[in-house]
Amino acid sequence: MPIQQMLVGVGKAEVFAEANGGTVTTVGDYKVHAFTSSGTFTVTQLADTNEFELLVVAGGAGPGNTFSAGGGGGGGIVNHQTGQALTAAAYTITIGGGGSGAGTSSAWPNTPTGNQGSDSSIKLASNSSIIQEADISDIASLSGITVSQPQANNKASYSSHAHFMGGNSAKVVNGTTTQYSGGGGFHSVGSAGGGAGAGENGDSYGSNTSQTYMSGLSWATGGGYSAGGGGGDGYATTMVTGSTTYYGGGGGAGTAANGASGVCGYNAPGGQGGGGNGANGHCSNASAGTANTGGGGGGGHSGVFGLNNYNSANGGSGVVYIKYKYQ
User: Fold this and answer.
1) What is the pLDDT of residues 129-166, one digit of tens each?
2) Where are the domains of the chain?
3) What are the backbone angles phi and psi of residue 159, rounded to the nearest 5°?
4) How far apart are CA 313 and CA 299, in angstroms?
5) Strands (E), the chain
6) Cis before residue 112, ω within 30 degrees of 0?
7) From the CA atom positions of the chain, what is the Rg in Å?
8) Number of other residues whose CB lies within 10 A of the CB of residue 181
9) CA pseudo-torsion sign 181, 276, 320, 39
10) 157 vs 164: CA distance, rounded Å
11) What pLDDT digit, counting tens, does each position of 274-324 carry?
12) Rounded to the nearest 5°, which phi and psi values hold at 164?
């Protein structure tokens, strides 16, 4: 049989992408490159179908504190892009750090200031042009009021003092931005709200987990609704492992409950995606956001009107994932 006839019907083999950098895992027919610290991602071969999936997570906030219970830190903003075309080139990966939590207040009405997280990004190494970025400045203030660091030092228009509100967060999915708000707090009852995650609003004081817990407390001298609100859950995705994982969870708020007995069993929980738990003014520190999740730090407590001093906790660092078909 002539060779020309033998080759009839034999098509060209599909070409897949090849790249290096970071820590590589496989999910089915896909490779996932994880960057937990800054580094370089290099595409050495492009596929016939030039599509990469990118997940970029900024650092979580270290929240401000108050003269009582402080709000939780907002989770790091998440930017998730599918179907992104790249070139065969080197890319600089930058991982944003978590913000530092505030110290404690020495006197009413002082409200120590926390710090937002830092941006994470993917940039073309040759000219630093941005391919994708999780930009903290894209997190908006609450409606009707503007603050300089809404992820860390939030304030509501109805309160004359800052940092009882949980910090805000946001997500960007294929170019569409969604904002999330920290939970409400109020200084007159020493109550604080949880930080927003990149997928859910933070809990307000006296709601959800905090309200359920408070129903079992014995109140000696009043002080109702002082259990802090929980942090909102972060952005949920199956990109990284094939199962659902969360990024950018909000931090739980601090708890102040001078009039309660048995309150040491409660720390306002951080949201899924690395959010830290809030402090309890009776007995326990706030916890930091988990590294490489963009989780917000837990809210602190100042003992100006009683109980103990606990700093607000630091936010967790960000992370970058890059996924493509390799077979």
Assistant:
1) 999 999 999 999 988 888 889 999 887 776 666 788 99
2) 15-136+144-327
3) -115, 135
4) 7
5) 18-20, 23-27, 30-35, 39-45, 52-57, 78-84, 90-94, 120-124, 130-134, 169-173, 176-180, 218-219, 235-237, 245-247, 260-261, 319-325
6) no
7) 23
8) 27
9) positive
10) 12
11) 999 999 998 999 999 999 999 999 999 998 888 899 999 999 999 999 999
12) -80, -25
**13 CB-contact burial (10 Å; exposed 0-12 / middle 13-18 / buried 19+):** exposed
Q: What is the pTM of this model?
A: 0.91
| CB-based contact 82:53 (threshold 8 Å) | yes
Q: Are 94 and 79 a contacting pair, CB within 8 Å?
A: no
Q: Could you tell me which residues come within 8 angstroms of residue 269 by beta carbon, excluding any fewer than 6 positions away?
A: 209, 230, 231, 252, 275, 277
For 144, the token pair is 């009707």
Which position has the token pair 């910090």? 167
The C-alpha atoms of residue 74 and residue 146 are separated, in whole angstroms, by: 16
